[in-house]
Specification:
single chain, mainly alpha, 85% helix
């Protein structure tokens, strides 16, 4: 099989676009210009998608679907007054698809091992959920489902790291670990203590997490 040629100029271009768009998002979310926010978020995720297709040695189609769903969910979240439930559903679906990407590593562990490692993760989830429970009544089932799927994703990514113990698994674990932390900040900002600082921080965390996962997906090992 011939080695896939990578255009370095395209890589530099798409990387620069992703970084610039990600940083610009931090500004546009504070000025509440929905059309501008939509355009910038779209530019960020499209540039990451093209960057992946340009640099990956082998395309993972589950990850491509995740990128497409991310584009749609981010777009819907911009207009969350009308599409919040739909955007949240796609977010839950994306977390599940991440699990599919690494499920082979999960199968190498016994049920006893899974349950043992699950205890601290479920404890943390329970504590956070009890704190936020009364503030998210309008989307209770989806929020609960996303919490369960997210904590399962972090658990499985951790087991994947234990199994493979390489840079690819480490980047993936760090990337997915950021997501539930950002989710908690999102919930705090939306329901408990609205603050532009929380908005900026959790948006930054999402884009850093996505980039770390991208780095994982382009590594061979």
């Amino acid at each position: 099989m011939r080695k896939r040629h990578t255009n370095k100029k395209n890589v530099t271009l798409f990387t620069t676009l992703y970084i610039l768009a990600s940083l610009l998002v931090l500004y546009v979310v504070t000025i509440e210009d929905l059309n501008f926010e939509f355009a910038v978020k779209l530019a960020a995720l499209l540039s990451l998608s093209f960057l992946y297709l340009e640099t990956t040695p082998k395309v993972n189609y589950w990850y491509v679907v995740i990128l497409l769903f991310s584009i749609v969910s981010d777009s819907l979240f911009v207009f969350e007054a009308h599409f919040y439930h739909e955007a949240l559903f796609l977010l839950v679906l994306n977390r599940f698809l991440y699990i599919i990407i690494i499920y082979h590593s999960i199968l190498k562990h016994s049920l006893k091992t899974l349950l043992l490692y699950a205890i601290p993760f479920l404890f943390i989830f329970s504590m956070i959920y009890l704190i936020l429970y009364e503030y998210v009544n309008d989307v209770q089932l989806l929020v609960f489902t996303m919490g369960i799927v997210s904590i399962s994703l972090v658990l499985f990514a951790f087991l994947n790291l234990l199994t493979k113990n390489n840079s690819k698994a480490l980047y993936f674990f760090l990337g997915v670990l950021i997501f539930p932390v950002a989710d908690v900040l999102t919930a705090i900002s939306n329901y408990i203590s609205p603050s532009p600082y929380y908005i900026v921080i959790y948006h930054l965390m999402y884009y850093v997490g996505r980039y770390l996962i991208f780095r994982s997906m382009i590594l061979k090992r």
